[in-house]
Q: What sequence folds into this?
């Protein structure tokens, strides 16, 4: 069917041409305006694209973070061994400074390890709450789910 003057092609026709480019720009950290300029589409088109493909964008960003974390994990043992070695074996003019910096880095890394706070437990609780269906309301009123782990009827302390 011929296109009428001023008529926009259907969105599905635009997707193959701009989809990958917008995804790459936005995953790479560009703002919506920067992505629009680089891909040569209007900012309004990017906003519409975000409304339709925002979940895909977040999934792609999550995959990048997961890969980066995997790379960091692979290098973690080597880095730890290096720090421990420097903390005990530095020599030369700046040996004391090197040992102090290495020890400080070890303490800093240790404080962020899993188990050093209850953050992981709280996150796991939130994830389990999101994964389970909400409780069925009782005849007396709705059942509330506390993020602290117990279910209680409204008004109960």
A:
């Amino acid at each position: 069917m011929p296109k009428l003057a001023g008529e926009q092609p259907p969105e599905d026709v635009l997707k193959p041409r701009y989809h990958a480019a917008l995804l790459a720009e936005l995953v790479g950290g560009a703002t919506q305006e920067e992505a629009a300029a680089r891909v040569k589409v209007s900012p309004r088109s990017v906003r519409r694209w975000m409304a339709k493909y925002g979940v895909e964008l977040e999934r792609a960003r999550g995959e990048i973070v997961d890969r980066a974390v995997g790379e960091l994990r692979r290098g973690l043992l080597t880095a730890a061994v290096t720090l421990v070695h420097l903390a005990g074996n530095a020599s030369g003019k700046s040996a004391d400074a090197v040992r102090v910096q290495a020890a400080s880095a070890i303490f800093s890394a240790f404080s962020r390890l899993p188990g050093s706070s209850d953050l992981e437990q709280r996150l796991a609780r939130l994830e389990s709450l999101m994964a389970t269906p909400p409780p069925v309301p009782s005849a007396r009123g709705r059942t509330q789910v506390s993020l602290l782990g117990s279910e209680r009827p409204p008004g109960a302390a």
About this structure: The chain is about 65% helix and 5% strand. The first strand starts at residue 144 and ends at 145.
